[in-house]
Amino acid sequence: MCGIVGYIGKRDVAPLLLEGLQRLEYRGYDSAGVVITGPKAAGLKMVKAKGRVRDLEAKVPARFKGTTGIAHTRWATHGAPSDENAHPHMSGDNKVAVVHNGIIDNADDLRAKLTADGVEFLSETDTEVLVHLVARSQADTLEEKVREALRLIEGTYGIAVLHADFSDRIVVARNGSPVVLGIGEKEMFVASDVAALVSHTRQVVTLDDGEMATIKADDFRTYTTSGTRTTANPTTVEWEAESYDMGGHDTYMHKEISEQPDAVDRVLRGRIDDRFSTVHLGGLNLDAREARTIRRIKILGCGTSYHAGLIGAGLIEELARIPADAEPASEFRYRNPVVDPDTLYIAVSQSGETYDVLAAVQELKRKGARVLGVVNVVGSAIARETDGGVYVHAGPEVCVVSTKCFTNTVTAFALLALHLGRIRDLSVADGKRVIEGLRRLPGQIQEILKQEDEIKKLAKRYADAKSMMFIGRVRGYPVALEASLKLKEISYIHAEAYPASELKHGPLALIEPSLPTVAIIPDDDLLEKNRAALEEIKARSGQILAVAHQEQEKADHTIVVPKNEPELDSILMGIPLQIFAYHTALALGRDIDKPRNLAKSVTVE
Ligand code: M6R
């Protein structure tokens, strides 16, 4: 999705902005642009380019000097990717420039009115209406001009505005799209994602929806869109700038897969309480008495986070015996759900900014529900909107496809399920057993990572498949769903996931030698049932790649993973299939970190 970066201070601004844009590349974009000014610059200077940040960099002239500027990576919504549609957008008199993330819903109406008033539009974007509204405002201050313009628009935005007549400041505003201020030494930054700031400062202020800010080189203030001052509470970003680097790996995905032993270690760290065979989850804001009154748990997330939620629901039912289920937040928010006072809702999100999840949380809160978050990005919108929750501590995930966050989110759910279980009916012995299993996870993930070479060979073998089937039963089914998503996202091979029990109810019709099946077969009480499914596939000459705790006779190939406690096996069984998807995509020459048509955080509807 789109990215914003801005700077005001004494340094040469263009290289800083370009570096910031590079750090936002992972979010997905199709064009980029930058506008600058400064005490010695006459007016605003702008460069835009369709394509990558390096294409923009190539167009920036040598004498592109200034000390204040805003820049943008655009993900096309209104109008095709082009130089004209790239942000920033500038007013006809070259005085006002705006970068915008989000969607202005009433842009067509505003455009028609402005056009009727003689305004000439240079792009097809919704954002350009905002520029003209700011430029036409008769207000005395830039803050008031922006406020007047925002009063006229409906929709979502994270914006940064630069004005040639007010070149000592940048005005920013947020409604539904993240805006973070970075506080430096006599310099200030703004961005839509801390990734663009952390190499310069880790002191940040995250704006709330309905909040605006004025940043100057040595000062900033925050206020509401109606002008009331707000209190800004700077926080320190825990992630180091280096965690955004590739660290010697060829891709972020490879790096993030390899980081999983450490990441899982982090989600466990400081939380296990051996004395009571339970875990402490500091930010849950749910005491034991309240936990005992929960009648149901509903988990909401999108994509990979939804899949992690499915595993989480299974863990909660198994360990805490609370009825639980997961649903895509994108569906939930549109079906006028019954919101039950005895249900605990849990929103899951790596980024903490996914619009569908945030909208579901806001709807639930409006109806008085208690909502917890299972989130990776500290201080993100979902983390702040929820009543409490569990941070998954995976560290920054840069690759568009999620790997380590999935594993950490599922592990965080295991902690939550254990915590709730021990408050309810889970025995001390079972609590101890699960804790020992959790402690074994980092070492077992390391063992799986050591199999990369063999998995790579298998990936090459299956890479020419046009389509693949993924099956699993009960605990294995969400693993199959996630593995199939991983494969399709980065290799573009069509993949379907089905409960193995459903094969004979339809999908068996697809099985033939050219459609390989990946089967998740834990060594649990359903092992024999799963083996029967393999028989059915073999009888139709289907190829089988099994992920199992022991070699599967009916499978053509088996990836053997270490066995943990049955409740925790799902955490491990997805990991070889992340490696499988990675090497399949590599064999097919795909752009692994930035798969086509996808963005890292989907902050629009
Ligand atoms: O940041 P979130 O966890 O809320 O993102 C949700 C999905 O957009 C995300 O998991 C998506 O499915 C990824 N491409 C998965 O690899």
From TrEMBL:
EC number(s) recorded for this UniProt protein: 2.6.1.16
Positions annotated as active site in the UniProt record: 2, 600
Superkingdom field: Bacteria
Catalytic activity: D-fructose 6-phosphate + L-glutamine = D-glucosamine 6-phosphate + L-glutamate
Protein role: Catalyzes the first step in hexosamine metabolism, converting fructose-6P into glucosamine-6P using glutamine as a nitrogen source.
Keywords from the named record: Aminotransferase, Cytoplasm, Glutamine amidotransferase, Repeat, Transferase
Quaternary structure annotation from Swiss-Prot or TrEMBL: Homodimer.
Organism expressing this protein natively: Streptomyces polyasparticus
Gene3D superfamilies: Glucose-6-phosphate isomerase like protein, domain 1, Glutamine Phosphoribosylpyrophosphate, subunit 1, domain 1
Domain Glutamine amidotransferase type-2 per the UniProt entry, residue ranges: 2-218
InterPro entries: GATase_2_dom, GFAT, GFAT_N, GlmS/AgaS_SIS, GlmS/FrlB_SIS, Ntn_hydrolases_N, SIS_dom, SIS_dom_sf
Major location category of this protein: cytoplasm
Signal sequence segment: none
Enzyme class: transferase
Gene: glmS
GO MF assignments: glutamine-fructose-6-phosphate transaminase (isomerizing) activity
Domain SIS: 286-426, 458-595
The name this protein goes by in its record: Glutamine--fructose-6-phosphate aminotransferase [isomerizing]
Intracellular or extracellular location(s): Cytoplasm
